[in-house]
Amino acid sequence: MALLAAHADILACVLGHLAPRSLAVSRSVCKGWRAIVDDYRLLRTDLLPLSLHGIFFMEELCPDPPKLFANPLTKHRIDDASLGYVKNDEGSFIENHCNGLLLLWNHLVVNPATRQWVRLPPPPPRCTGMEDFRNDVCLVYDPTVSPHYDVLLLPCVSYGLLDCATTIFTEESEWPPLAYPIQVFSSRTWRWEERSLARRGEAAGTIADMDPYRDYEHRYAVYWKGAIYVHCQNDSILRITLTDGSYEVIKSPTGSKMEDSTNLYLGKSKKGVYCTLIYNDTWGGLQIWLLTESCGKCEWVLKNGINFAAAVAKFSWFSRDENQGLWILQKGDCDENVKEAPVQDNYEWDFDNGIILAAEDKVESDDMNLGMLHFLEFHPYKEIIFLRTQARVVAYDFSRLKVQDLGQLPVQCVGSVFPYTPCWTGDIFEKN
C-alpha cells in the first residue's frame, strides 16, 4: 500500500486515460485504486450525458434554427440553443443525436454543452445502382466507452426511385437487400468507408412495401448497448451491429406497417428500446411497448395502454399563464433572468402533485375538443414520455400512471424532436 501511495501521481495519470466505464471497473481492483480514482476525481460522472436537460426540436416546414424546451433551473445551462455559433450555409437543421452530440445537415457534428463543432469530410459517391437512394442518417456515440463517434448513412427508398435509369432494383426486390451497402464515418480514422451489412433472418419487405412519404422527421434511430435500432419506411425496425457487420429485422408490435390513423415512434428509455403507438382515430389512445430479448429472439412487450384524453381533460388549459410551467422555450441565448435564476437540482419533476391517470377515468363529451395529441419523445433514463396538446407539454410517467404539466410550447407545428443529455467532456473534435 505504501508503494502504491508513493506512485499515486503516476497511477492517476495512467488511469485518467481510461474511458469512464473502464475507470469505474478499475475502482473494484483494490482499496488503493479506489482511493486514487476518488481522491483525484478521475470519474467525473457529472460531465457525462446521464441527465436530461430538455428537448431540442425543429419546427415543421420552417427554416428557423433549432429550439430547446428545457428546465431553466438546471445546474449546467446551454448558452445558445439556436446553435448560432455554428458556421453552416445550409442552416442548423438537426438530423440526429446521440448522448449529447447533435448531427446537422451537411455532416456537422456539434456539442452544444461545450460549443464545439466540426464539419466532416464529404462522403464518397455511392456504388453503381445506388446513386438515387436517399439516406437515413445515424450518429453513434458513447463517451463512457470511447471519445470517438461514428456516423452512418443508410440507403432508404426515395420517391420515383424505380423511374431512375441507374437503379438496379424492381418493386419485387427485397429491401433492405441481403447484403446492405452502407457508408460509415469514424472520428477515429477521420474518413468514410463502404461497408456491407449481412442480413440475419427475413427481409423487412420489398421496395414496393417501403413508403417514401413515411414521415422522415419522425422516423428515429436509437443506440442501445452497442446496437443501432432504425425505424424503417414500413414500420419495421432494423437492428444494426457494426462490430460483426450484420443487421436483422424486427417487426413492429402489430406485426405490419401502421395504418394511416396510427403513428409509431421509436425511442430509448430506462430499460432499453421502446416504441409508442398513437391512435389518431381514437383521441388520446396510445400504447407503449418495450423490446425484450430472450434466447436470441426479440419480442415486444406491452408496458402501457390507455386513453390519454381523461388526464388531459383534467388540466385547466385556458386558465393557465403561458409562462407558467416547469420548463420554458429557449430560442437562442439564455436571457439574464434565466442565467441568474437559482439552481434547483430536484426541480425536474413534481409527480407527487401530478394528475393520477386511472384506467377507469372517462371523458365527457364536452372535453373531447382538446386538439391533437402529439408524441414528442421518451425520457432516456426514466419511464416517461413527453406529449403535446393544446400548445402545452406534459410528461407522462407510464410506470406510475401520473401526468405532470411542464408548460407551454408556443409553436405552430413541431417537426423532429430529440432528447438532449449534455456531455461536458472536451477534446472530442481534434480536427476542428
UniProtKB/TrEMBL annotation:
<feature type="signal peptide">
    <location>
        <begin position="1"/>
        <end position="24"/>
    </location>
</feature>
<dbReference type="Pfam" id="PF00646">
    <property type="entry name" value="F-box"/>
</dbReference>
<protein>
    <recommendedName>
        <fullName>F-box domain-containing protein</fullName>
    </recommendedName>
</protein>
<dbReference type="InterPro" id="IPR036047">
    <property type="entry name" value="F-box-like_dom_sf"/>
</dbReference>
<keyword id="KW-0732">Signal</keyword>
<dbReference type="InterPro" id="IPR001810">
    <property type="entry name" value="F-box_dom"/>
</dbReference>
<feature type="domain" description="F-box">
    <location>
        <begin position="9"/>
        <end position="44"/>
    </location>
</feature>
<dbReference type="InterPro" id="IPR056594">
    <property type="entry name" value="AT5G49610-like_b-prop"/>
</dbReference>
<feature type="domain" description="F-box protein AT5G49610-like beta-propeller">
    <location>
        <begin position="218"/>
        <end position="336"/>
    </location>
</feature>
<dbReference type="Pfam" id="PF23635">
    <property type="entry name" value="Beta-prop_AT5G49610-like"/>
</dbReference>
